[in-house]
Amino acid sequence: MTGSPARRGIAVEQAVVYGLLTALGLGALVMALGFGFFLEDSRVGPGLVPGVVGGLILLIAGWELLATLRGHRTSHDSGLAEVVAAATPDTTADTTGHTTPGGASAESGAREGGSADAATMSPDDGPVDLPGDGGGPGLDDVDIFGRTPKERGRQLVAVFAALVVACLLVPLLGFLGSFFVLSLFISAVVERRRWVPSLIVSFLAVAAVYGVFVGFLGVPLPTGLIGIGG
Amino acid sequence: MLDNLVLGFSTALSLENLLWCFVGVLVGTVIGVLPGLGSTTGVAVLLPLTLSLEPVTGLIMLAGIYYGSQYGGTITSVLISTPGEASSVVTTLDGYQMARQGRAGAALAISAIGSFVAAIISLGLLVALAPPFAAFALDFGPPEMLAVMILGLATIISFAGDNRMLGLLMALVGLLIATVGVDPGSGTSRFTFGSIYLLGGIPFVEVMIGLFAVGEVLFQIRQGAAAPIKAKFRELMISREDLRRSRGPILRGSFLGFLFGILPGAGSTLASFMAYGIEKRVNKRGKEFGTGAIEGVAAPEAANNAAANANFVPTLTLGIPGGATTAVLLGAFMINGIQPGPLLFEEQPTLVWGLLASFFIGNVILLVLNLPLAPVFAQILRVPYGYMYPMILLTSVVGAYSISNGMYSVWVVLIFGIIGYFMKRLDLPMAPLVLGLVLGPLFEKALVQTSAIGDGNLLIVFTRPLALVVMAIAILQLAAPSIMARLLRRRATTRSRRSDSADSTPEGSTRG
Predict the structure, then answer these.
(1) Which of A18, A160, A183, B488 is the 20 to 30 Å CA partner of B302?
(2) Contact flag B163-A75 (C-beta cutoff 8 Å)
(3) ipTM for the complex?
(4) B212 lies in a domain?
């Protein structure tokens, strides 16, 4: 399978994630050796659980990393979910593999539940089902606002960067101040909603949070230099 | 027994508890309706709200969110074929078909009624079985607890995703995260890198909020907006015939759901799938399943509610959560300084029985709310996501802040938000990670105690008959599905091949 840019992107991300996990497992194992696996009388020591767990992570993530690098996509193996799928006559048609991919509309609806559903249970050598959700467009599609995956990727980065900036601004603007700005920024700039409704929604949201957390629960939210809400 | 129930109802019927129960089930329904926001997210995000309440009141509200979202998840499954909860995925199969035939009202009504009946049946069973089970569990030593925890992890790994290797990987990551901080056995500080924040361990609720709420929001942004939803108000048109047809499926679904629900690690999703599959086989209208049969809605809806309640059996009596949401609820218990386990029923009768009694009340409220108002709840979907998700983010960070009154919690949420995003994007299952994280400290404690009992020999687990049986079930669970699935698939293939050659009706090939 040649694959679309989005699928290749997923493979790269997979490789990076498995690589990081492999490193995490290795690091945990090495550090755990320093803690000591066993105490005297061969009792369980502080290093045993992290060491064994780290070692297993190293093995599994390393294996998955190699598989990804060699171009094998993670196959769906047969878990309990597949037994259920096989026991449900409706879906055996899918696993015997002579229905068209995608199936009926109800089945594509079922796919959205993610892990636990029958429709993603492809045969072992079948292609990976990309995570789909909420009746939304696929990874390669343009969504209802005409945004391409690239634009949505940029939005994602913008929202996360804004979250980090908002947290950094808390000492200056106060908690509610900076998150009011965040909410307004996301609605009006990132999502390109109109300014007036965005202002109203953001204000109401922050007011509700103030009412519940500061008024009712008495949480001392940081007020910042300007002293908003506290 | 009876005086326990009286005690429970007198607790649950106090004005304050009644109010928070109502808030819980209402918010739970709304959260269930919103696609992507499941009960786990709801309980994690709103947990900080309950910290100022009495423990019993807070837990009543959080549990209300849990079972309330089971009702809410159904609404979107039926109306727009988009399950709000993983456990209502199966409901889309027949529920959505019914809606397309103009019978959405009947489908929603039968799922509310089925859920209610199942809730009452399973609560009866829960009330009857939990105390003797707790008494039985008093004999459990560390080796038995160790075996039960392994069973829980094995169950969640074998059902949480399509790939058990990745499930195992995630469970291990959860266990590893749980080891950060001071080791309970020896007092050694592990993986703290000199940080005083890490000394206390990585805070559990913040991780949940990050993974489930922030991760989900980020994933939805990347995923793009779905088509706007037009849900119409429809009158409820459930006929006597519908009710008669659903009686059997609801009863079978309830008992089946309860059975699967009491397995540690098996959430309500498994129960709903099994109930649908089995109902399809035993029901004489089984062939109509998938085309809008009311039985195909009634059975899984009854099962997922029954399982949600049954999940409380291992959670309350063993302190081992049944699924991801009960894992977060277990965290809520611990934050309140309550350790669920065999002694809970003796030490905290007011809390346990108050909580159980509130389930009855909450389900009555849900039935009354859902029968006439299901289409009203569906209107929530009209709020544009562009306004909705900043609010979810705001609630998440404020909630996190209020747990520790510090920005450290907020940073943890953001870091785990990124991790959650990548997990969703790469289809890595979250439930095993959550269970690993929650069970980690308990697991290690049981391990240390077991090694102390066996004088350093961990193999004594295999000399205790009960522990041995539980371990065997756990291993069977991990190994059996491959074998069974292969057998079933082979049978299905040969059968469909045979029917293809005989006559190629579409029906023949769908019968396994």
Answers:
(1) B488
(2) yes
(3) 0.79
(4) yes
